[in-house]
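This entry is listed below:
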Amino acid sequence: MTAKGLRVKGQRYGEIRAARANGFAKVSVSVFSTFGLNECPHHQWATITEATVIKQLGSRNAVINGPRLWMVDYFGPSMIPETETPVAFNGLEMRSIATINLSLMQAMTLRGNYTARPMPRMSISQKHLPLLNVDNVQEILGGANAFKEIPKGWKFETRLLQNDVVVKTDASVGHFLGLQDEFDNTYVLVGDVASFAGL
């Protein structure tokens, strides 16, 4: 812990997402993470499968997400994990970090009620897969042909920051807005989250 917060850059962690029916045409997704407990040791992580998670939690579906490495430097107080009784998956301790409620359509298509609107939107890299280490991620993703599936009108740029960039979660939204590229690297929206969400 420093004056800036909890340093996390380059730390490895894993996530598990488990979905179950929650009433009529609704799905509840529980998200578990090793962050704050361990660095997701390979010998334990490799033994966890979707089938073992479904059996343990009684869920309808499961996604094994990771392992990943944090790209951000620090977390402020609101992002530091709270003390909570861990859940063990094949001996690997994880904690519940979020519950996401979706409609059945959103869960099946992974799309919400999105309407394209011409407006500036800037996202910043938050985390990436281990095949891109912290030192070479800019070199690999900054190449002209790195992305094959980037949406029309979008562009990807890399640069070295001269000043700190603080990404805030807007309380009126209740979460940050994020997206993933074709390599499953994650980016979060920088800017007015409430305005973007139409609030």
About this structure: Residues 144 and 156 are 9 Å apart (CA to CA). Confidence is low (pLDDT under 50) at residues 131-135. The chain is about 15% helix and 30% strand.
